[in-house]
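[job 4471] stage=fold_predict status=RUNNING
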Amino acid sequence: MRDIKVYIEKMTFGGAGLGHVGGKACFVPFTAPGDVARVRVRSEKRSYLEGEVMEILESSPGRITPPCSIFGACGGCNWQHLPYSAQLEEKQKIFTDIMWRSGRVESERILPILPAPEPFGYRARVQLKVRFVAGELLMGFYRGGSHLVVDLPGSCAIAHPKINCLVPELLRLTRIFPEPDKVPQIDVMVGDNGSAVVIFHYVGSGHTEAAAFLSENRAILASASGIYLQSGRKATLRKIFGPENLEYLVPQGPVQDVSGRRLTFSPGGFSQINYRQNLALIAAVSDWAGLSGKERMLDLYCGNGNFTIPLAGFCSEVLGLEEYEPSIRDALHNCQINGLKNIRFHCTDALEGLKDIIANGTTFDRVLLDPPRTGAAELVRLIPALKPAKILYVSCDPPTLARDVGILRGLDYAVTKSLPVDMFPQTYHIESITLLEPLNGEMIS
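[job 4471] inference complete, writing C-alpha cells
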C-alpha cells in the first residue's frame, strides 16, 4: 500500500469524494469537495483507485464538524461532514449526471431536489446490531464494510427521538437477558403517532423461555408500545404484547380533495423511514398522475398500498401486485379501514403478475412502480404492452432508474420530468419519482 496526495473535486454516488491521480479516478470516503488529503491506496484497478483518508492536509472551506461522535466509524452516515445545503447541491448534480449518462434524460427535465424538513431525527425505523463480547455488550451499527459493531454513544443523530429514548432501556433489558449472546439484532420502528414496537431477534433454542423473559420484564421498556420476538425468518415473528400494526396518516393537505387516509403496516413489514418525505412523494404521484376518476391504475410492488390507497378515490379501478404476503395483508387491511371497494391486491411476483395481465389482454391508463434497489429491467420492457398514458416510476436507486428509463426510451416512452427527493439526509442515497409519457402522444389522456 502507498500514500498519495489527492485534491477532492466532487462527491459521488456511493458517498465517496472523487479526485484524480495519474489519470485515474480516486474515490475517498469521508472527504469533501475542496479537501486536499493524504490518502492510503487500498485498491487499485486499471481505471480507478480506492483509498482511505490518513490526514486532511488542507480542509475544504465547506467542511463542518459532524454532530455524531462515531461518524466515520459507523457505516450508517456518509455526509455529516457536509452542510445540509452542500449535501443537496451534490445530490442534485449526482442525480442529474446519472440520469443523463445512463438514461439520456436532459438536465432541464430534472426538477430541483426536494429538501427534507428534518435533516436529523427523521429515521423512523432502525436495526440495532448487538454483540456480547468478553462480558461487554455492544449495541449500535456495523462499521462500514464489515460486521463489526460500533457501539452507539447513547443516541443516533438521524434516528427518531422515540428510538433514542428506547436505546438506554434496550441496553438495560439486553444486559439481563438470559442469553445476551443469542440476540444479534434488535429492530425498532415508530408510527407517526409516536407508538414504538421492538423486535428482538433470537438465535438460541429456548424460545419459550426468551418469550417469557420479555413478557415478565416488559416494564423496563417503558417507551415501547409493543415487543415481538423473532427466531428465524419473518414467519417466526411472535407477539409478546402490543399492537398488531403501526400507522401513519396521509392528511388532506398532500393529496388534493382527500379527506385523509390512515395506513398501517405490521411489525417486520415495510414502510418508508421518513414519513414527511413519504407524504411529499405521495403528493407528487397524486399531482403527476392527472386522475379524473375514470382511469384504471396498476400498482407494481405495491407494498401496503402506500401510494394507491390515497389515490383510489380518483380511479375507477386499482390493481396492486406485491410478492411479500404480510404487505398484502396490510394492504387489504388498509382497504378495509378506509372503506375502499375499487382496489384489488394480489400476492404475486410483479413480473409474473404483469405477464399474466398482458396475456389476458388487459390494459391500464396509469402504471405506478416502486421496485427494490435492483430496479425492474425485465419488467419495464413489458409495461408498454399495457398502453399506459403515464408511467410513474418511484426509485430509491438512481443508477437502476436511469438504466430502466433508457429501456423505456427505446420503447417510445420519454421522461416528462423527474424529481429527486432527499429521503435520507446525511447519506448519499437519493429517492425520486419520474414521469414518463408516450413519445407520439397518442395515448396521453
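[job 4471] summary: The chain has nine helices and 22 strands.
[job 4471] exit 0
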